[in-house]
Amino acid sequence: MSWQVEALLGGKPRPFRADHASAIAKQPLTGLVTIHREGLTGDSQADRSVHGGPEKAVHCYPLDHHAAWREVLGEHPLLDDPGAFGSNLAIRGLTEAQVHIGDRFRLGSAVLELCQPRQPCWKIEHRFDHKGMVAHILQSGRCGFYFRVLEEGEAQAGDVLERVETGHEDWSVTRIFKTLFALGSKPSREDMADLLALDRLAGELRARIGNKFDR
Q1: pTM for this model (two decimals)
Q2: Boundaries of domain holding 60
Q3: Is residue 200 included in any domain, yes or no?
Q4: Tens digit of pLDDT at every position of the chain (215 positions)
Q5: Overall domain count for the chain
């Protein structure tokens, strides 16, 4: 299966709140964009301790969710912006329920591997000036997801994201997010053991699960 990419997006850190900066405001990048191990040329992150890096190299927040957010926020002007939630890929028709940890995709001449869901933070609420958005994401599972880059390459708007291999098909992004992060979630030891065995799951997330499992 494949999905057309409407835009590749990037952003630069800029003043955000008090002494915080953020690059959450992504804008379309023009022409061929290099996709490297750390992400897209033309994109960067303000706080590298929680954003960016090889296992958060490319972020996708499905455009399909913007319609659901209009029911929550009304006609918020940011919902017309494909990079409103910090996404690097503007894609329709591909959501968390349809993808799995370890799915591999070709985008232009690059190969990406889905490795973890995105966990929401306060910057989303500050950007939209609306409290309760993080709780809504934790309840709805409309979280987005991250890719690592297996093969560096180039892509541009209009290219397709083609799934070339299905990963751990028992673990969709929806399932793993609701297991680990949904409001009131208490993953069973069986689920945690299964997650620890997923060799394509992001290493940092596996380590956190391992710490919980040991306790």
Answers
A1: 0.94
A2: 2-182
A3: no
A4: 899 999 999 998 887 787 788 888 899 999 999 999 999 999 888 666 667 789 999 999 999 999 999 999 999 999 999 999 999 999 999 999 999 999 999 999 999 999 999 999 889 999 999 999 999 999 999 999 999 999 999 999 999 999 999 999 999 999 999 999 988 888 889 999 999 999 999 999 999 998 877 76
A5: 1
Could you tell me which of 147, 160, 113, 120 has the C-alpha nearest to residue 40?
147
Is 196 inside any structural domain? no
197 domain residue, yes or no: no
What sections of the chain are H helices per DSSP? 65-73, 122-128, 133-140, 173-180, 189-196, 203-214
Assess if residue 209 is contained within a domain: no
Look-up of token digits 């940092």: 204
For position 88, which CATH number holds?
2.40.33.20
